Amino acid sequence: MVRLVSTIVMFVVLLNCALVKGQLNVQNKPSHSLDELSWLAGAWTGDVDGDVTEEQWLAPKAGIMVGVNRSVYRSGKVSFEFMRIAETPKGITYFASPGGRPATGFVAKEISESSAIFENLDNDFPQRVIYRRKEYGISARIEGMIDEKQRAMEWEWKRPVGEPTKV
Question: What beta strand segments (E) does 89-137 contain?
Fold first, then answer.
């Protein structure tokens, strides 16, 4: 009996040491749920001096949110982007496909009931994608380094006329 208790104690001590030193590969439970981003779902639009940007997100379901962005500029230029936010082995990840190009992933660094910050420091530009919930709607910001200088672009959107205004 003493030998069994000693063996169990030794096993617990060794297991604890392995966990502390990081030698045991234990899968951690994701720290965030995609449902925390449900505030992003729906249609959004912004108009700055005739440049109109629209973004629409489907609500989280089965571990994924799907979005699309369209910008129509007063100059006549048009751009679009396909997006998705998905639960991945790296955590909640934002994938951007501007102009339909192959997707670039940005892993969530912070998610709260009013913001989400995604980051990919290996990307040329942007390195961060940030969404914030505002009293009037939402804002989106991309930021990072270009030519060794910090750069950023930001958009603010409200619900289109006829859409529910509660965020």
Answer: 91-98, 104-111, 115-119, 128-133
What's the pTM? Answer: 0.78
Residues 6-35 as b/e (b if ≥16 CB within 10 A, e otherwise) read eeeeeeeeeeeeeeeeeeeeeeeeeeeebe
In tens, the pLDDT along 95-147 reads: 999 999 999 999 999 999 999 999 999 999 999 999 999 998 999 999 999 99
C-alpha to C-alpha distance for 39 and 58, rounded to whole angstroms = 11
Both tokens assigned to 129 = 């994608």
d(CA 31, CA 87): 11
Whole-angstrom Cα distance, residue 67 to residue 42?
9
Six token digits for residue 56: 């629409």
Which amino acid does the sequence have at 116? A
25-47 per-position pLDDT tens digit: 444 445 788 999 999 999 999 99
- One-letter amino acid for residue 157 of the chain: W
Distances (CA, A) of 50 to 72, 74, 158: 9, 5, 15
Strand, coil or helix: 129: strand
